[in-house]
Specification:
The chain contains eight helices and 13 strands. It has 243 residues and is α/β, with parallel strands linked by helices. It has one domain: Spore Coat Polysaccharide Biosynthesis Protein SpsA, Chain A (Alpha-Beta Complex).
Amino acid sequence: MKAVILAAGIASRLRPLTDNTPKCLLKVGEKSILERTIDNIALNGIKDIIVVTGYLREMIENFLLKKYPELSFTFFFNEKYDSTNNVYSLWIAKDVLLGHNMLLMDSDIVFDSRILGQLINSEHENCLAVDSSIELDEEEVKIILNDDGSIKEINKEIDPKIAVGESIGIQKFDKKLVWRLFTILDRRVLDKNDVNIFYEAIFEEAIGNGAKIYPVDVEDYKCMEIDTAEDFETAADIVDHLS
């Protein structure tokens, strides 16, 4: 299994904190967000890590190579980081992901390492982490389910009243679904230049074509996506409760 971390964004909502530092290298407690993520990945036995960078790429690459010489990193640079979304960053890494199982995550999540264990050990080959414990509004990427428990829809537009939780941005897919996702990505990126969408739109299209992706509820463990200064302050309060 290969882990993929998407870390290309500018994070303008966190300025001035991100004027000279990429968001993933901001410290929450004693460690940066990215350091916490890499530690969690390594703790779960994964050493092959792909990182898609953009904004201030050198800082990210230099940090990882110096801090984790025992791990194997492959870096991709999204040179259009200021005009594309995470779907394009994922597409860039296509060639090294085809034929492999994939653990995909965003670079701005503070989370308990046991969440990765839940996904890796899930009975479902294709699943994503969902937090059912939070109060939902229009900002979160929400999900609703089919009768068999698989995901029916995943997007921000879902009515919070009917959603079962928030997708926190950590996914596990087997190599068959990875191939299907990149087939969709090729068409959306190359044929339609559809580069400014979130990767959940690709998941939804795959689901519409028959793919089964299941939620793994992480309500027992702490996790938080950091988008704003308020999020950053709140995250500092939860890191002492992480494993």
